[in-house]
Design brief:
With about 650 residues, the chain is of the alpha+beta class.
Length: about 650
């Protein structure tokens, strides 16, 4: 009933293109269902007209078209997995109905069972196609520029540092950095971003992204086999192969439950005949009715229908779950712990303050950038990137380790650095300047003094600033009833300043990687913990938490250690992913409760003889189809933080 093997990334994913009708499993399933219905209707009409031979021929067609696929599946499961499944129950029930001259009921059973299987295949096919479509984005090759010549190469031949020539309408064959040209690039299939992104020199592009109207040259950062899309494909395969605890339980239950139902049939038959005094035919009919309504089809399909649909919805929106177990774990989370650098912040220094003391803002920024362009320090890079003009030429530049940098400009010495460097330049650090520096540093900012000769010209402050979506993400998590903790190795002053700005509940600063593990264990005392990170030093904490969540641009170690990947590096999707996980968990509970309820109620009524076989068939197979279609509704579930209302929600 349920496809058990994960899709291979080598399979075609661009949509099914059969050579003939029978090469498409779903088309074949619906065709056999149609043949079963044709035989059923033909048999009913022939019976009404007294054409007995034709009746049995039509019912025989229904039994062959509807029964042989189920029998083959039952035999395959028995031989390969050494277990009995619901397909065997349905075949036995249909043959049992025919054995008491109720071939019509047997044909009805096989038709509805065949129809439910076809609908299940179609529904799960829709779900898996939504996931597999992500793997159909890689082109067969790309145009690269080597030795000044353009040449077409296959994906396997693309190497790191190759220069790709990407024309309008073409997809990027590897993760790249734009060298020349500008264009809009559609990364929606990878990141979930619905609006094309403007790309200019220096911008990064994921493999599989679709180029818009411009001609671009881009340097390959990773070979095609190591690209974001390749990782995504691998993770999708792992996700489909892995099962949640609930799915594993249902799989373990199916075999023993099937055996129990089969052994209960003679018990029901004996009791109906010898205890309740029914005739042999009526007693056997009751036993067959009980067999039908007691079969666990809906129970078996309830969890994968919801889990696969939720995984597909998340993957389309850029939140990739590696397994159904990850969905279940995320639904139980009470605390979200986040790394600071690269997760809550952009991971790059930015000039946030320039206090002028002697001169104009623009002139002093230009002077600072002209000097700092000669330094490779992250603070210098922040100053240079803040200046939009062309830096002036500075001579005799000297970098002084741990202190700053000096140079000559227009015949005078200019310098930028620490208090120590200012004192060495004989600059006067007045009480007012000291007070301003202290205030900036209390905010967690890294400060620098800019001066000329013995004069102090300006105070500059840089910081790793929060992501644009960080505050939205933290707010959405709070509205979801979750606590948010920050785990960082950075200075406490820096961490507390950012935490206060974002509204983080718990700050743990100056942590070594092994200390993050201790914090995770401590947070687990308050319930399930999700850890969000992107760096190599986050990998142990990601693995130790109840569920690890990594940023798509994170290190390989973080991606491997995590259970969920935010492909777009968009924290605002995190609360939506949790909402999706909760919806999937609720859906599974509802589906299982409904399916078990149908079995218990209809089984009890069948034992009392209150349910005729056709009604039992409709209740059983109708419940199975309902569970499948109910689960597939999760395909349309949004994964956006802004979908949360302002009313607080609480985890189940």
């Amino acid at each position: 009933m349920i496809p058990s093997k994960p899709f291979s990334s080598q399979q075609t994913t661009s949509g099914f293109k059969p050579q003939n009708l029978w090469s498409d499993p779903i088309a074949r399933a619906f065709s056999l269902t149609a043949l079963t219905l044709f035989g059923l209707l033909g048999g009913v009409i022939a019976s009404a007209n007294g054409a007995i031979t034709l009746m049995w021929a039509c019912f025989g067609l229904a039994f062959l078209a509807g029964g042989i696929p189920a029998a083959r599946e039952a035999i395959h499961t028995l031989l390969s997995e050494r277990k009995l499944d619901v397909d065997l129950l349905m075949v036995v029930a249909a043959l049992g109905a025919a054995s008491v001259n109720q071939a019509e009921d047997g044909a009805i059973l096989l038709f509805l069972f065949s129809l439910s299987n076809a609908l299940q295949d179609w529904a799960l096919g829709r779900t898996k196609t939504a996931i597999r479509a992500l793997m159909d984005l890689s082109p067969e090759g790309a145009t690269v520029i080597r030795d000044g010549r353009e040449q077409w190469v296959t994906l396997e031949e693309i190497k790191k540092d190759d220069v790709l020539l990407v024309k309008p309408g073409e997809r990027f064959a590897a993760d790249s950095i734009i060298l020349t040209g500008s264009s809009t690039v559609d990364e929606s299939a990878i990141t979930g971003e619905s609006v094309p992104v403007e790309k200019e020199p220096g911008g990064t592009v994921f493999s599989g992204a679709l180029n818009g109207s411009g001609v671009l040259r881009a340097r390959v950062e990773k070979p095609a086999g190591e690209s974001t899309l390749a990782k995504l494909s691998k993770l999708v395969e792992q996700a489909q192969a892995a099962k949640s605890p609930t799915e594993q339980f249902a799989d373990k239950l199916e075999g023993p439950y099937t055996i129990a139902v089969l052994f209960s049939i003679p018990v029901v038959f004996v009791m109906a005949h010898f205890v309740f005094g029914l005739e042999l035919g009526a007693a056997w009919y009751r036993a067959m009715t009980f067999l039908v309504v007691a079969s666990p089809c809906a129970v078996v399909i309830a969890t994968p229908a919801a889990m696969l649909s939720a995984m597909a919805a998340g993957a389309r929106a850029g939140a990739l779950f590696k397994s159904g177990a990850a969905l279940e774990a995320l639904a139980r989370v009470k605390t979200v712990a986040m790394d600071k650098t690269g997760t809550l912040t952009i991971g790059k220094m930015k000039l946030v303050e320039l206090k002028t003391i002697n001169g104009s803002y623009d002139d002093l920024l230009a002077l600072a950038a002209s000097l700092e362009q000669h330094s490779e320090h992250p603070v210098a890079a922040a100053v240079v990137s803040a200046y939009r003009g062309i830096p002036a030429k500075v001579n005799d530049v000297k970098a002084i380790r741990g202190k700053g940098i000096t140079g000559r400009f227009e015949g005078q010495t200019i310098w930028a650095g620490t208090r120590v460097l200012a004192l060495e330049q004989h600059a006067a650090l007045t009480q007012e300047i000291q007070s301003q520096l202290n205030e900036l540093e209390r905010q967690g900012l890294t400060t620098m003094i800019l001066g000329r000769e013995t004069s102090i010209l300006a105070l500059l402050a840089v910081a790793d600033t929060p992501r644009d979506d960080a505050k939205l993400a933290v707010g959405a998590l709070h509205r979801a009833g979750l606590r948010v903790a920050m785990l960082t190795g950075d200075r406490r002053a820096v961490a507390e300043h950012i935490a206060k700005d974002l509204g983080v509940d718990d700050v743990r600063a100056e942590l070594l990687p092994e200390q993050k593990l201790e914090v995770i264990e401590d947070l687990k005392n308050h319930g399930g913990v999700a850890m969000v990170g992107d760096g190599v030093n986050d990998a142990p904490a990601l693995a130790s938490a109840d569920i690890g969540i990594s940023m798509g641009s994170g290190s390989d170690a973080a991606l491997e250690s995590s259970d969920v990947v935010l492909m777009k590096n968009d924290l605002s999707r995190l609360a939506g992913a949790i909402q999706l996980a909760r919806a999937a968990s609720n859906m599974v509970r509802f589906n299982l409760t409904f399916a078990l309820g149908v079995i218990v109620i209809m089984g009890f009524l069948a034992l009392l003889g209150k349910v005729p076989l056709p009604l039992g068939v409709i209740a059983h197979e109708g419940g199975t189809v309902f569970v499948v279609l109910n689960g597939i509704r999760l395909l349309a579930h949004p994964v956006k933080a802004q979908d949360f209302s302002s009313k607080p929600q609480h985890p189940e």
